[in-house]
Amino acid sequence: MEIYAREACAAVKESHDAEFRLMVACALWPRREDDRERVRDLAGQTIDWQEFLEMVVLHRLGPIVYHNLLHYAPDCVPDDIKLVLEQQASSRSMAVFQDLAEVFRLIRLFADASIGMRVLKGLPLAILAYGDAGLRDPGDTDLLIAERDIVAADELLQKAGYIRIEPDVKLTPRRFTYYVRHWKDFVYEHSVRGNAVELHWRLTRNRAMPGTELTRPESLSLVKVGSGEIPALAFDDLFLYLCLHGALDGWMRLKSLADIVAICRNMEPEEIERLANQAQRLGLLPEMTAGLRLATRIFGVRIEGPGLLPDSHPAVRRILKFSLQAISAGDYRLPRESISGRAWAWYEMGLRSSAAYQWQIFQRVLFRPRVWSRFDLPDSLFFLYPLLGPFEWILYHGLPGTAQRNAEL
Asked: Do 281 and 287 form a contact (C-beta atoms < 8 A)?
């Protein structure tokens, strides 16, 4: 039996609960018989359709919402809203075809260069979770490589027409080494097409965070897409990575949680138990438990199985509290940038208590690429960056009280 819980709506009192519930109901996959009645009931209420559209875009649920809403309740949707949803879905469908062609191009380039590569999330996940790449917002293309191949892969992408945009700073040898140790990816944008690629050599910035075993070379699945195959993580590892990634991102965008629902909705308790045992072995059971609890609370899909942690577990409780507040704040449309770096660091620090884990976060705060950009020190003076951090913060944010005084003038 499924429930349609309302904890997310109650976490922070907002004025657009109806729009949020409709969006969530339209994002459920695979379909069930009672989904139609649920969507029609919600769509028949007083809906601020513009607010609804903005939520759908922010949470990156356009394709699945369009597909289900127009299937279940086309007569409840105003014509102008139908047109916008159709245009957005059409645009994303074109993006899927373009991404597919580009992914196959990159697969060939990496293979020719003898660089091992797997695609994280993206098209393989869309096929595994929805059976149709067009039902999931394509987003960026995330590639996973071995750390030893970073330099070669960076050169390959730049020759393939990509420009590195993150970190947006000159990487001297000392900076490069430090960045690789304390961050997890480079971000690129194609100089002509504008599509983005993230080059990952690790799944998390924090080297002491559990989950490194997910990227072992033998974790490989070839996902058939069209006439070709895309290398991806093995199913269990991909699922646990989704839980880990979602937790570290505060599950702010429901696209990630919708993926979890699509994968788990038809699972038997025995399958959940198997995944929970794997998560326990790898140290990722808090992240998996929190992801499934959020799926129940927000999407109303009961996903249960032996082996999950109680909600009172410290890490589970922290993820649930932060995520529910982040999702429901700002009329369910909180920009990620509204959460300060200090708040993110504080949240992350509470997920694990080991000294090595905490020290990794502390070092990342001390040596930030943004400071490198402001103060271009030679590598011999790299150790001075922690002293320059406070000055960079003042230059970036302004003196305390400056913004308020300017607003009053």
From this structure: no
pLDDT value of position 232 = 97
Residues 6+ apart with CB under 8 A from 224: 127
314 SS3 class: helix
Please identify which residue in the block is written with the tokens 């770096």: 341
pLDDT at 95: 85
Instruction: Give the span between the Cα atoms of 383 and 375, in whole angstroms.
Output: 12
Instruction: Report the alpha-carbon distance of residue 391 to residue 406 in Å, rounded.
Output: 20
Whether omega for the bond prior to residue 30 falls within 30 degrees of 0, making it cis, is yes
Instruction: Please give the helix or strand (H or E) that residue 125 lies within, else none.
Output: helix 122-130
Instruction: Note the pTM of the prediction, 2 decimals.
Output: 0.90
Q: Are 103 and 230 in contact (CB under 8 A)?
A: yes
Q: How many residues does the chain have?
A: 409
All structural domains of the chain: 7-366 (3.30.460.40), 367-409 (no CATH)
Residue 399 confidence class, pLDDT cut points 50, 70, 90 = low
**Helix, strand, coil in percent for the chain, rounding step 5:** 60, 10, 30
Query: Beta strand pairing status for 228-232 and 221-225?
Result: antiparallel
Rounded (10°) CA dihedral 86, 89, 95, 96: -130
CB 28 within 8 A of CB 35: yes
**Between β-strands 141-144 and 228-232, what pairing exists: parallel, antiparallel or unpaired?**
unpaired
C-alpha to C-alpha distance for 24 and 366, rounded to whole angstroms: 40
Tokens, residue 342? 């200090």
Ramachandran sector of residue 187 (left: φ over 0; alpha: ψ -120 to 50; beta: rest): beta
For residue 166, give the DSSP letter. E
- Determine the 3-state secondary structure of 12 from DSSP: coil
Buried b (16+ CB within 10 A) or exposed e, 358-367: eebbeebeeb
